[in-house]
Amino acid sequence: MALKNRYDFVLLFDVKDGNPNGDPDAGNLPRVDAETGRGLVTDVSLKRKVRNFIGLVKGEQPPYEIYIKEKAVLNNQNKRAYIGINKAELLEGDDKKRKGGNAVEEARLWMCRNFYDVRTFGAVMSTGINCGQVRGPVQMTFARSVDPVVPQEHAITRMAVATEAEAEKQSGDNRTMGRKFTVPYGLYIAHGFVSSFLAKQTGFDESDLELLWQALIQMFDHDRSAARGEMATRGLYVFKHDNELGNAPAFSLFERIQPKRKDGVVVPRSVEDYQVSVIEDELPSGVTLEKKV
């Protein structure tokens, strides 16, 4: 069923003794706002976790394939669209040109039908074999920690070496040193938006939306690694408008979700150190709030 409503949502998640999103330009240190000291997690990182969850649950089968994934060759993915619409002959010719001719729109729609992340988040698919561009109906912001975080650096050892040459350099001890970065604890908040107008253009429907909510709730449970420590979704608050244009500005709804440190807590180390105030009184007419977590 096609979407007929606008949605705005707030996602709360936390990390304990882990690196929620390393910065490759800073030696993989946890991302931090340099001016406020608050931790950051990029929208790209959050979307990656959604993609991984959908791929896991749906087994990478149409209409739930994932376009942006590890080791994917995007032009090979784009080529499948022209084969799927029986116009593979349009791909012949000069490799320096973007191929597709007048069938780009058909190819774009084929990609939307088959790839969940294309019809959800959008994609630029004009990287040689041209399947056009898609602006996705679901968009998310960076997540920002409620309080400043202090990244910590830990020395770690590995009781092995990679090669015999390394072993010969060691004086009877194969131990090698490394570094690991963590955030002791951080509660993060991100905002998201769902546009029914863009959903109609990509084919994103009610069943896709329910799958998105499930992914946001469970994605950390299936993305464990030694680097990430303990991460979990602590809250998912969905504001549903009774029409497509919406009944209130998103920012005025987001302000109704207010996580704050409890009185007397100086250094938070768990979600129990926070209280989340949800202002449900006098919601704008035509807006309902559903707490999914």
Instruction: State the secondary-structure class.
Output: alpha+beta
**Tally of helical segments:** 8
What is the global morphology?
flat
Helix and strand sequence: EEEEHHHHEEEEEHEHHEHEEE
Query: Rounded to an integer, what's the Rg over CA atoms?
Result: 23 Å
What profile does the largest beta sheet have? Answer: 8 strands, antiparallel
Measured by DSSP, the beta-strand proportion falls in 25-35%
In short:
It contains 8 helices and 14 strands. It holds the Pfam family Cas_Cas7.
Keywords:
eight-stranded antiparallel sheet; Cas7_Csh2/Csh2; two-stranded antiparallel sheet; CRISPR-assoc_prot_Cas7/Csd2; 8 helices; 2 domains; alpha+beta; CRISPR-associated protein, Csd2 family; 293 residues; 14 strands
Describe the structure.
The strands form four sheets. Strands 1, 4, 7, 8, 9, 10, 11 and 14 form an eight-stranded antiparallel β-sheet that branches. Strands 2-3 form a two-stranded antiparallel sheet. Helix content is 26%, strand content 30%. The chain has two domains: 1-42 and 142-151 and 183-293, no CATH class; 44-135, no CATH class. Strand 2 and strand 3 form a beta hairpin. It has eight helices and 14 strands. The protein has helices at residues 43-58, 74-84, 104-114, 116-121, 164-169, 196-202, 206-218, 250-254, and strands at 7-18, 22-23, 29-30, 38-41, 122-124, 133-135, 138-140, 143-148, 152-158, 176-194, 230-241, 257-261, 274-278, 287-291. It has 293 residues and is an alpha+beta fold.
